[in-house]
Write a structure and sequence with these properties.
By secondary structure, this protein is α/β, with parallel strands linked by helices. The protein is built from ten helices and six strands. The protein has helices spanning 17-30, 37-43, 48-56, 65-77, 89-98, 111-121, 144-153, 167-176, 190-195, 205-210; strands at 3-7, 101-106, 127-131, 160-164, 179-183, 200-202. The two termini are 16 Å apart. It holds the Pfam family Hydrolase.
Length: 218
């Protein structure tokens, strides 16, 4: 049977989490909201609408949501031409593809942002499909992004492994019934990833690649 390796992108394959922190912080600041950067960091990995709701609460002025998201997109877009892939990201995807895994991305990014991320990874030859924010109604930590990735790969949850860097990733993968691996390169502590469902945790894609034989992707 086929098997699928599903990957989150921001903070997992591309070193963007702290860029998201700064640009979301600035978007909130411009709109008159004082949101601590550490709080923004913990929310990175949620889709835009869910991130705003998580940080500002249900009693916020919801009419501001679209403008906040647009401001973040504009600020973050300034980095599109120089987003840095994390060590070993492209090599890991190509190795898995060569080993017979169907590689699928599951990300809250879409459009030009997703294109910039894929250019940074530089492994399109290894990526079979992408489940983006445009393809689902609910983002992580709902299981729908991972479930859609499995549909694209044509495999059951029992034949898939999901790699991500946030608790939202681990919760989404766990709800979807797949084995979950965490990476520390997004800045979330090991204990938090394990508590949220990570079976094993690695420093970054290069570390996972170096220890691939002993991992669930081996």
């Amino acid at each position: 049977m086929d098997r699928a390796a599903v990957f989150d992108v921001d903070g997992t394959l591309v070193d963007t989490n702290h860029l998201h922190v700064v640009t979301w912080w600035e978007a909130f600041r411009q709109a008159g909201h004082e949101v601590p950067m550490h709080a923004v960091h913990r929310a990175v990995g949620l889709g835009s609408a869910d991130l705003v709701a998580h940080l500002l609460g249900d009693d916020r002025d919801r009419d501001q949501d679209a403008a906040l998201s647009a401001a973040h997109t504009a600020l973050y877009g300034q980095y599109f031409d120089r987003l840095p892939a994390l060590p070993g990201a492209g090599e890991l995807l190509r190795r898995l593809h060569g080993d017979g895994w169907t590689v699928v991305l599951a990300t809250s990014a879409s459009g030009a942002e997703l294109g910039a991320l894929r250019r940074a990874i530089d492994a399109d030859d290894a990526i079979a499909a992408t489940a983006s924010a445009d393809d689902v109604r609910e983002g992580k930590p709902a299981p729908e992004p991972v479930q859609h990735a499995l549909e694209l790969a044509g495999v059951p949850a029992s034949r898939a492994v999901f790699v991500g860097d946030t608790v939202w990733d681990m919760r989404a993968g766990s709800k979807a019934g797949v084995r979950c691996l965490g990476v520390l390169c997004g800045g979330i502590p090991r204990a938090d990833l394990e508590e949220a469902g990570a079976e094993a945790v690695y420093a970054d894609p290069a570390d996972l690649l170096a220890r691939l034989a002993g991992s669930p992707l081996g």
